[in-house]
Amino acid sequence: MARFYSIPFRHGSTHGHDRAVIIPVMVGAKIAIGGKGGVGKTTVCAVWAELFAEDGSDVLAIDADPNTNLASAFGIPGEQSPDPLIGMKDLIAERTGTGKEAVGAYFRLNPKVSDLPEKYSLDVGKLKLLVVGAITHGGGGCACPEGAFLKALLTHTILQRQEVVLVDLAAGVEFMGRASVQGIDALVLVVEPGGRSIETANNMAKMAGELGIGCVGAIANKTTDTAQGELIQSQLKDIAFLGSLPYSRALQEADLRREPVFEANAEIVEELKRARNTLMELVLPSRALRANE
C-alpha cells in the first residue's frame, strides 16, 4: 500500500500575501522525465531530485540517457562521475548468462539486478545517483542481453524500490518503444519553443497512453515571454501543463562550469517546485486508487 506524508508550500495569495497550503507528497513516487534532446530534461530531473530530498524523501535519481549528463547537473566532477552500467560488459554477461561458457545465443530475459542500485549508486548529498546509460549501437532494442539487462534494472527500480525514483530518459521516443518505463506514476515531458519539440512531446504522450501510463505532464522550458508558454500549452494534446520556465543564462553558465543546477537560479527552482507540487496533485488520486485495489 502507498504511504503518504504532507509538506507545506507557498501557493496563491491572500491580500497580497502568500497563502500556506498543505499537500500530500508520495513516498515512493516514480517519475520519468523525457523530451527531445537538449530541452532541459536533465535540469528538471536534478532539481526535482534535490527538492524531494530536501523534503525528507529517500531519492534515487537514475540517468538512463546515453549521454549520462545527470552527474554534471549535480556538480559532480567528471573524474568522479560513475561509469554507466550499460557499459559494464562483464557484469551484463554475468547477469544475463552470456559469458564465455554460455551455450548458443540464448540469454536470461529477467536477470538478477536487485543488488545493483545499492552497489553502484553514488551518494550525492541527501540523495543517491545511479548512472545506467542507454543502448547506443545500431538496432539496439529489447532483443539483446543489454536490452534485457536495462529493462530488468529499470523495472526493478520502478516496481520494487521504496524510494522516490526519478528517471532521466534518453532523448526522443525510442526509449518509450522498449516499454522500460511501464509502472511509473507519471511521465513528464520537457518542451522548448519549437515545432519538433512539441511534436516529440505529443508522440511520447501517445505512446505513454498505449503503455498504460495514466499521468502525462509537460513543462515549457527556455521561454522568452509568457506568450511562448501559452502557445506551447495550446499545442499539447492530452498532456497536463505543469508550468513554464524562462530562459536562464545562469543555468547555461552552471552547465558550462559543471556546477549544481539547483544552486544556479532560485527563480527556476521555485517554478519547478510549483510544477512538482502540481504534478503530485494530479498523480495522487490514481495512485491512491491503485493502492486500495
Structural write-up:
It contains 10 helices and 10 strands. It has 293 residues and is α/β, with parallel strands linked by helices. Strand 8, helix 7 (195-210) and strand 9 form a beta-alpha-beta unit. The N and C termini lie close together (9 Å).
Please write out the topology:
Layout: E1 3-14, E2 17-27, E3 30-34, H1 41-54, E4 59-64, H2 70-73, H3 89-96, H4 116-120, E5 122-124, E6 127-131, H5 145-159, E7 164-169, H6 174-177, E8 186-191, H7 195-210, E9 216-223, H8 226-235, E10 240-246, H9 249-257, H10 266-291
Parallel strand pairs: 3-7, 3-8, 4-6, 4-7, 8-9, 9-10
Antiparallel strand pairs: 1-2, 5-6
Helix pairs in contact: 1-10, 3-5
Strand order of the largest sheet: 5-6-4-7-3-8-9-10
CATH topology: Rossmann fold
The top level CATH class name: Alpha Beta
What is the CATH-assigned architecture?
Answer: 3-Layer(aba) Sandwich
| Assigned CATH superfamily | P-loop containing nucleotide triphosphate hydrolases
For the largest beta-sheet, the strand count, sense and barrel status come to: 8 strands, mixed
Report the end-to-end length measured between terminal Cα atoms.
Answer: 9 Å
Query: Ranges with pLDDT <50 over ≥5 residues?
Result: 1-24
- Which outline best applies? globular
Number of strands: 10
Alpha-beta classification:
alpha/beta
Give the helices and strands as they follow along the chain: EEEHEHHHEEHEHEHEHEHH
Q: How much is the average pLDDT?
A: 84
The total tally of domains equals 1
**Gyration radius, to the nearest Å?**
19 Å
* % residues in beta strands: 15-25%
The number of distinct helices, counting runs of at least 4 residues, comes to 10
Helix content percent band: 25-40%
